[in-house]
Recover the amino acids of this structure.
C-alpha cells in the first residue's frame, strides 16, 4: 500500500519510521518557490507516521497510517498527487527531489 506524505519547510516535517519506506520524492514549486515536499511511501503493516512541527517546542505527533488516504499502486498515488497539486493554469511544477 502507498501513502502521500507532506513536509512544509518552516512548518512541519514528516519522518520515515519503521514500516514506512520512501519510494520517490517530489518538490512542489508554486510560482517559482518551493512550498512543500511530497513523498510517496510504501507502508507495511500498520505503522504510525511521525510529524514534527518546526517551531519550538517542536511538537511530535505519531499518527496512525490508517488515517492517511492509501493507494494500492504507485501509479494511483502518482495520479492523486498530480490531482492534488495542479489547478487550472496556475504556475505549478512537481520536480523530482533527491
Amino acid at each position: 500500500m502507498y501513502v502521500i506524505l507532506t513536509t512544509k519547510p518552516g512548518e512541519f516535517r514528516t519522518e520515515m519510521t519503521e514500516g514506512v519506506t520512501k519510494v520517490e520524492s517530489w518538490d512542489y514549486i508554486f510560482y517559482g518557490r518551493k512550498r512543500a515536499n511530497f513523498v510517496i511511501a510504501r507502508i507495511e503493516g500498520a505503522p504510525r507516521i511521525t510529524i514534527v512541527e518546526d517551531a519550538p517546542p517542536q511538537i511530535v505527533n505519531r499518527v496512525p497510517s490508517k488515517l492517511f488516504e492509501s493507494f494500492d499502486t504507485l501509479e494511483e498515488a502518482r495520479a492523486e498527487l498530480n490531482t492534488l497539486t495542479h489547478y487550472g493554469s496556475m504556475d505549478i511544477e512537481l520536480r523530482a527531489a533527491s
Strands lie at 2-7, 12-15, 20-30, 33-43, 48-53, 60-64, 70-71, 92-96. The longest strand covers residues 20-30. Helices lie at 74-85. The CA atoms of residues 20 and 43 lie 5 Å apart.
